[in-house]
């Protein structure tokens, strides 16, 4: 059964401050409005790891928790009822979760751990539809191989400030591309929003694009 244009939603709320996710949605031609955390919300608490938690379980749990928090934000703020898109990305190696570095030294520590090795980048997606129902979530799994990078190069990269605010202390679309020998998986997923899975979820949520 086909959907009439009247049944489609004109935009989606994006519950993310990431400019990369915004750029990727624009690449798909998706209209969106930002639905960002309020100052009183404790985002760090949502991202806290549980003891013994595996990275895939972690990233999906955090993504779903952020989706529910965004839905509460929408209802409390009196916003128009539209679907909400949430994504969460993490980097994992040796069963450890590498989050966002706290400073340049922390970034160097993470990058040193990745140098000369292969790691996974996990991006979980969640959509809550306009009626408040959580749609089946998606998980993008990609592997990235770093070259054996000299320590001086890692320190220069960390000093550039680019690693800050990025899981695993690097951005695939930035200067760190010179370290990457091979990628298997979704380039957009490594950036933070796998476009294939995103498009499928947004169509399921009846977004018009």
Structure description:
The structure is a single chain. The chain is of the alpha/beta class and 209 residues long. The chain has a single domain, classed as Alpha-Beta Complex (Maf protein). The chain contains seven helices and seven strands. Strands 1, 2, 3, 4, 5, 6 and 7 form a seven-stranded mixed sheet that branches. A hairpin with a 2-residue loop joins strand 3 and strand 4. Helix 4 packs antiparallel against helix 5 (151-159). The longest helix has 23 residues, at 55-77. The two termini are 19 Å apart. The model is unreliable at 1-5 (pLDDT under 50).
SSE string: EHEHHEEHEEHEHH
Overall pLDDT score = 94
Q: What's the domain count?
A: 1
Q: What percent strand?
A: 15-25%
Percent range of helical residues: 25-40%
- As residue ranges, the low-confidence spans are 1-5
Quick take:
The protein has 209 residues and is an alpha/beta fold. Helices cover 34% and strands 21% of the residues.
List keywords for this structure.
209 residues, alpha/beta, Maf protein, seven-stranded mixed sheet, 7 strands, 21% strand, disordered N terminus, Maf-like, dTTP diphosphatase activity, nucleotide metabolism, cytoplasm
């Amino acid at each position: 059964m086909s959907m009439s244009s009247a049944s489609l939603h004109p935009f989606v709320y994006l519950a993310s401050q990431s400019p990369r996710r915004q750029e990727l949605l624009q690449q798909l031609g998706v209209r969106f409005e930002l639905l960002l955390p309020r100052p009183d919300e404790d985002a760090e608490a949502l991202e806290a790891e549980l003891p013994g938690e595996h990275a895939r379980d972690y990233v999906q749990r955090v993504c779903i928790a952020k989706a529910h928090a965004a839905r509460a934000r929408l209802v409390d703020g009196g916003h128009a009822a539209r679907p909400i898109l949430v994504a969460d990305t993490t980097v994992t190696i040796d069963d450890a979760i590498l989050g966002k570095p706290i400073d340049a030294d922390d970034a160097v520590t993470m990058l040193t751990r990745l140098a000369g090795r292969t790691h996974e980048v996990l991006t979980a997606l969640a959509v809550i539809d306009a009626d408040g129902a959580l749609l089946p979530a998606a998980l993008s799994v990609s592997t990235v191989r770093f070259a054996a990078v000299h320590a001086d190069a890692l320190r220069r990269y960390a000093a550039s400030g680019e690693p800050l605010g990025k899981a695993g202390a690097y951005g695939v679309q930035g200067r760190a591309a010179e370290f990457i020998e091979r990628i298997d998986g979704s380039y957009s997923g490594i950036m933070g929003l796998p476009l294939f899975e995103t498009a499928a979820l947004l169509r399921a949520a009846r977004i018009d694009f």
